[in-house]
Design a protein that fits this description.
1 helix, elongated, Immunoglobulin-like, five-stranded mixed beta sheet, mainly beta, about 800 residues, four-stranded antiparallel beta sheet, 63 strands
Length: about 800
């Protein structure tokens, strides 16, 4: 998860953090270390309701935890009951209110605060460029229910012409709020908000000019009231100062006492007895500076400006524990824990908890690829950034739900592909300490799902994530740098041996985004973008024996408004090619449709299916029967991502939209910046790798619906069927597999009795019973299919005229028929 906020229980026994789709509870051990107590992930282990919690707070009596969720999907406040003995939490209420808006495009500042007695809860929402609001909720101390009783905005009679501040702090006596931050013309001011102790609302507001910051902007800072209520501290990153004010406890007014120059000062924590103040600042490295406070004058004395060196980071929150024995700093990627001596104020060396330490499904941040094992039992998610690696989940094949199994770290993992037999994984990564990338080959254990590294390559600069396998899995193609690399692959071990390198520039090609190989294995298609932003689609002839490529031609598609998106798919019968596009300036991405000549591999345009108000098509998947296409679109942002279900006409190749799911609408969520999609083997579920995790969709395709026929016959296959090939006899006059040949089509049916995919093999044999060529060897769900043979053997050589047998095998069932080849 991306961390958003942190809070402590009043007794200091627990720490709570929130982030995208997650709220986690941690236990503070006797030695000060933190252990994970509970992780609540949305849609995991039956927990629902958390999308993007931005703020958390625990009531002063420790009985309730409140979290504000600012997702555009469902704006609300979550109320949890808290076990005061263990610290675990349980969701008891969801409070809907339109005030819980993120206005994320404006860069919001927000805070959730309790009054000292716990009866009132305050939520500040102050987006940049707008006036924002300060909302007051009255809390029922017994039930935990919260009711909004006041919303203050700029221009309200009690608020005057002041903007809602960006930062807010409440005094320990609960009488006053202190706010700050640059808003329009009212910069370099402290706002003093007078709180009504009877009903909890804001009565009036006055300001205090900051003389030393007159004319300056207070853009990235903080405001803190000392626990004893005697002092106020201001800091700002850009202004590089810490300002100290004395506070009048009666009327709340403040008077500046001191200023200290501290570069990039922002994060600040004060000990519970107000004796020590800690400020994070930067002096070629990040440090904590410690100040001691004079209890009589309220003035500070700098004790050590480099008390503790810290790893660079930009804390969202710096928090002193209620007991003063620790300081917690939270940024988007990690939680920093620093032990503190409560007498001397000295600090121990910090230790860190990252997303990888939180269990649940937190390791899915920045998911970029998702794949499923052959039997559908395991799902593998590739993620990058600090939690980079491959996470393995066990998958419930009935309801699609996932359970975490293990995590394999791979630094800055960029993308991942899976072999046709789904036994090996190929991952491209770009480690921080290397200017070149790694290609890692991994083998999956069929029983446990565990991944083991088989082989690693280093070389090239990562500028493309395109990968492809030959149908039989004997070749692997990727483009880790400026060249298209062809590898021979051992299907048993997964190991690779490079056998060809094609420099893209030699053929006028730019950077590839996706590859595809025709079902007959004779043609290779390259889909990418040139430096001029022209989309390109290139055709190569493929040697079916060794897998090497020969360039034939390329097409340049569209204008400079068109960029190549990330998917290229060929229909199961090999007759049509589908290329996703990105119209980044006109918001009209689509799917280009090409008719494919089976002999020459030539592509001719057959139309385009367009979507409106989106950026680019990210991925495409075609059902095994070729009747459905699943399209993934997005450009980052909750309102943009889309999943579309399209029906494909097998004769014309044209597409018709059946369903469209937009993130943030009609209960659809879990897509922010989607990248990759995959279908389960039975095609009942679809999984999307997204910036925030993995989204699961039910396709709605039952065994009956999946088996719709191309010829619209009413009956559905209940037994294994193998039809006579057509034409029969057929002739082959060509002597070169690369030039194409006349073909014959073999149609067959897989029974729908099982909802799971089953192994299917269709092969050609000569009169002596020797294998000539395997046409199909993969898992298939129940339905009707066809395969094409061009009268060439497995080595790409033409076979002689004569009688041949073709055999279909599925499970224990075998059917054999004869065909005649004449020349």
């Amino acid at each position: 998860m991306n961390f958003n906020d942190i809070t402590c229980s009043p007794d200091g026994k627990n720490v709570y953090v929130c982030g995208l789709y997650t709220i986690a509870a941690l236990k503070v051990e006797a030695n000060g270390s933190l252990n994970i107590l509970q992780v609540l992930n949305n849609d995991y282990n039956g927990f629902k309701g958390v999308y993007n919690p931005s703020d958390v707070a625990v009531s002063p009596d420790g009985r309730y935890l409140y979290a504000v969720d600012i997702s555009t999907t469902d704006r609300k406040m979550l109320v949890f009951t808290r076990d005061i003995d263990t610290g675990s939490i349980e969701l008891i209420e969801i409070i809907q209110d339109t005030v819980f808006t993120s206005q994320s495009a404006a860069g919001p500042y927000h805070e959730l605060l309790f009054s000292p007695e716990g009866k009132y809860l305050y939520w500040l929402n102050s987006p940049y460029g707008t006036s924002g609001a300060l909302n007051v909720f009255e809390c029922n101390l017994e039930s935990g229910h919260a009711t909004r009783i006041q919303t203050s905005r700029k221009g309200d009679s009690h608020f005057g012409d002041f903007d809602i501040p960006r930062w807010l702090a409440i005094s320990s006596d609960g009488k006053h709020f202190y706010g700050g931050g640059d808003h329009h013309a009212h910069f370099a001011k402290i706002l003093i908000l007078y709180r009504n102790l009877q009903h909890g609302g804001i009565d009036s507001v006055k300001s205090h000019d900051i003389e030393s910051w007159r004319g300056e902007k207070w853009e990235r800072g903080s405001v803190t009231v000392s626990p004893d209520g005697e002092a106020l501290y201001l800091a700002d990153v850009f202004l590089g100062e810490l300002l100290v004010f004395s506070r009048n406890r009666l009327n709340g007014e403040v008077e500046q006492l001191q200023s200290f120059s501290l570069n990039s000062a922002r994060s600040l924590a004060v000990s519970p007895n107000s004796a020590h103040i800690y400020v994070k600042h930067y002096d070629r490295q990040s440090y904590f500076a410690i100040f001691a406070k004079d209890s009589d004058t309220e003035e500070l004395t700098l004790v050590n400006d480099k008390l503790l060196q810290l790893n660079d980071g930009n804390p969202i929150q710096t928090l002193m524990s209620p007991t003063g024995d620790a300081i917690y700093m939270l940024d988007e990627k990690r939680l920093t824990v620093i032990r503190r001596d409560t007498v001397s104020g000295s600090l121990d060396q910090p230790y860190y908890l990252t997303q990888n330490d939180f269990g649940g499904t937190d390791r899915l941040h920045a998911s970029r690829a998702v794949k499923i094992s052959q039997d559908g039992r395991f799902l593998y998610v590739a993620a990058r950034h600090e939690d980079a690696g491959i996470t393995t989940f066990e998958r419930d094949q009935q309801n699609g739900q996932l359970s975490l199994r293990e995590h394999l770290p791979l630094e800055r993992l960029w993308t991942m592909s899976i072999s046709p037999d789904r036994r090996h994984f190929y991952a491209l990564s770009l480690p921080h300490n290397l200017p070149i990338n790694n290609l890692t080959v991994l083998a999956a254990d069929s029983l446990s799902g565990k991944l083991n590294i088989v082989q690693q390559f280093t070389g090239g600069s990562l500028n493309s994530t395109a990968m492809a396998f030959s149908r039989e899995g004997t070749n692997f193609y990727c483009n880790p740098g400026t060249s298209l690399l062809v590898y021979a692959r051992d299907p048993a071990s997964g190991r690779l041996v490079q056998q060809q390198s094609l420099v893209n520039a030699d053929y006028g090609l730019g950077t590839p985004s996706s590859f595809a190989i025709s079902p007959d294995g004779l043609h290779f298609y390259w889909h990418g973008i040139r430096s001029s932003d022209l989309q390109q689609l290139a055709t190569f002839v493929r040697d079916p024996t060794i897998g090497t490529l020969t360039f034939v031609n390329k097409q340049e598609l569209g204008s400079t408004l068109t960029a190549a998106a990330r998917a290229l798919q060929i229909s199961p019968d090999g007759r049509f090619v589908y290329a996703s596009t990105a119209e980044i300036f006109v918001d009209a991405p689509g799917i280009l449709i090409f008719r494919r000549n089976a002999q020459s591999g030539e592509l001719t345009s057959a139309g385009k299916f367009e979507f409106e108000a989106l950026c680019e098509m990210r991925d495409l998947a075609i059902s095994a029967d070729g009747l459905m296409i699943y399209a993934l679109a997005g450009c980052g942002g909750y309102s943009s991502p889309m999943m579309a279900v399209l029906r494909r006409d097998p004769e014309s190749g044209q597409l018709t939209l059946e369903k469209q799911f937009r993130s943030g609408k009609e209960g659809v969520y879990g897509m922010f910046d989607p990248e990759d999609l995959t279908l389960s083997p039975d095609e009942r579920f679809l999984y999307v790798a997204d910036l925030g995790g993995v989204a699961t969709f039910a396709t709605g395709r039952s065994a009956t619906r999946i088996t719709e026929k191309h010829d619209n016959r009413a009956t559905l296959p209940k037994t294994l069927q193998l039809e006579q090939n057509y034409p029969n006899p057929f002739s082959s006059l060509s002597t070169s597999a690369t030039l194409g040949a006349s073909t014959t089509t073999i149609r067959y049916e897989i029974p729908v009795a099982s909802k799971q995919a089953v192994p299917v093999e269709l092969a050609i044999y000569n009169l002596h019973g020797r294998l000539v060529r395997t046409l199909v060897n993969e898992l298939k769900i129940g339905g009707r299919y066809s395969a094409v043979w061009n009268a060439f053997d497995a080595h790409g050589k033409p076979v002689p005229s004569g009688l041949y047998f073709y055999r279909l095998k599925s499970g224990d069932s075998v059917i054999t028929r004869r065909l005649l080849l004449v020349k």
